[in-house]
Amino acid sequence: MPEAPIPARDGISPQRLILRGVVPDDRSYWAGEAGDSPFPFGRLLVPGTVLDRPVPAWFHPPVPEEPAIPFAHSVVFEDLDLIVVDKPGFVPSTSNGRIVRETIQTRLRLSYGEDEIVPVHRLDRLTSGILVCSRRRETRGAYQRLFQDRRVDKTYVARVVGDVRVGEEWELVELPLHKERGERQVRVLDGGVDTRTWLRRIGEDEVEVRPVTGHTHQIRVVLSHLGMPVLGDDTYPADRGLALYDFSSPLHLRAVSVGFRDPFSGQRRVFHVHAG
């Protein structure tokens, strides 16, 4: 993503778009970076200015009123580069387009007064547990690449519905997954993206999970496919529809540990939270 010429406002990042024809008068726009732009980077564009070519620009998005999400995060660890939080279920890591203020990213930016705080990996809105966030642009890419290159060990605990269909020894489940654009559900489908997931039973209705790959909803799809869906899952095996502010049935899937070798110090780092 290109660098924005303006800072975040109220913890919410500016957005980029391409202006064509004329500069609108609905809000303020600042010129983005482009080799052939007639405007210097960061110039406030005058409404009504006729544009003879497409111009990249940045603006502060409108922020709608949002109900509060009544679940608090806690900080597990912090240093100059990272803030590691225990994310509650129902709170998005970043904006999903419908929730903007009540995200971990916005909450941390406001509480720390730092506009560069960004999660370096995904954690579904309904999933709770460890979320690693970067607080410095200079080191962010190195931590993001750890997750992109699968050089991170992640462990989850899921409480499931029905019989636990794996034993106490680790079992590797390999399934091809596919997601159609516009659909909420991910399906097991020949020709889909290959995924690998380690599973083992750790209790009467609990499974420990170590995903090797990182497909959307991977753990939830795999457990549902095996006949033991995660308790509280609103999408698998049946899609009950999106209800952002229905907190009555939490998803019992929790990221309990994240470990990696730090790209700068070379030290092994492991962050834990309780499974309950």
Explained architecture:
The protein has helices at residues 104-112, 137-148, 218-225, and strands at 15-19, 30-31, 55-59, 74-78, 82-87, 118-119, 128-134, 153-159, 171-178, 187-188, 193-201, 206-211, 253-261, 268-272. The protein has 276 residues and is mainly β. The chain has two domains: 1-63, no CATH class; 74-272, 2-Layer Sandwich (Pseudouridine synthase). The protein contains three helices and 14 strands. 30% of the residues are buried. The longest helix has 12 residues, at 137-148. The strands form two sheets. Strands 4, 5, 6, 7, 8, 9, 10, 11, 12, 13 and 14 form an eleven-stranded mixed beta sheet that branches. The chain is globular, with a radius of gyration of 21 Å.
Give a topology summary.
Layout: E1 15-19, E2 30-31, E3 55-59, E4 74-78, E5 82-87, H1 104-112, E6 118-119, E7 128-134, H2 137-148, E8 153-159, E9 171-178, E10 187-188, E11 193-201, E12 206-211, H3 218-225, E13 253-261, E14 268-272
Parallel strand pairs: 7-13
Antiparallel strand pairs: 1-3, 2-3, 4-5, 5-7, 6-7, 8-12, 8-13, 9-10, 9-11, 11-12, 13-14
Short note summarizing the structure:
Helices cover 11% and strands 28% of the residues. With 276 residues, it is mainly beta.
Count of β-strands: 14
Low-confidence stretches: none
Which topology of the largest domain does CATH recognise?
Pseudouridine synthase
- SSE arrangement, N to C: EEEEEHEEHEEEEEHEE
CATH architecture of the largest domain: 2-Layer Sandwich
Structural class: mainly beta
What's the gyration radius in Å?
A: 21 Å
Helix content: 10-25%
Shape: globular
Question: Regarding CATH, which class of the largest domain?
Answer: Alpha Beta
Specify the biggest β-sheet: 11 strands, mixed
In total, the number of domains comes to 2
What is the number of helical segments per DSSP (H or I, 4+ residues)? 3
Q: How large is the share of residues in beta strands?
A: 25-35%
Mean pLDDT: 95
Question: What is the first-to-last residue Cα distance?
Answer: 37 Å
> What is the CATH H-level superfamily of the largest domain?
Pseudouridine synthase
